[in-house]
Specification:
The chain is mainly alpha-helical. The protein is 70% helix and 2% strand.
Amino acid sequence: MSLDPDAPETPESDIKMSIWEHLDEFRKRIVRAGLALLVGAGGCWVYREELLALLLRPYENAWVARKLPGVPELQTLSPTDPFVGYMQLSMVGGVIIATPIIFYQLWAFISPGLYAKEKRFVIPFVLFSTLLFASGVAFCYFAAFPLFFDYFFSLLGPVGDSGTLLTQRPTLGFYLDFTTRILLAFGCVFELPLLLTFLAIAGIVTPRQLLAFSRYAVLGSFVAGAIITPGGEVTSQVLMSSALIGLYFISVGLAFIFGKKEIIRD
């Protein structure tokens, strides 16, 4: 650190670290995040049946709403399928529960390269990133899943005049793969405001650039909504696209608040 009060502020990383020191620090952060994940997964394993019942609720509700015959069932094709399925569900639950610690470890790894004034954002970063991830998971569960399953079930039933019926009885593994991947994907997509805000803080993008790019972001949101949502179901597409557009403009607002101020030249 320079003793000259007029010297420009520099990050801590000006104290050079070797590649091995960086790798060792990275290993420590990964281990701590992994331990948090395992603790969360252990807690989820205790309540594995309750978690599976919770994850099945949108599927069951859509089944009842469509007045499909019988009751929804999940198949297991081998003796180990229930164990593997519960393990998978517990690990995904562990990821969701451990997100505050995972995001803190990420911050702790990159913080040596930040200025002192930027390090004060550690608590807002952890809280905001956790809130965004949880919001994405909740949006998927309460808004996207009901629309997805309702559309999928609308395709079941008689196939024209063939006399054949399309029915559905997925395997436990397929259902868990489908639902948990979408849940995690929504959680990650909802981190967009945080990502763009940090790019603005770093000066890589400016708020005005983000605002000027907004027309393309809106178009891209509708394209992404059409790709992510199943089939041609318009309500799902509009819901997804609206969420993406809202996230983008939240990012623009945060960039104006926290981003580097632009110097207006004559």
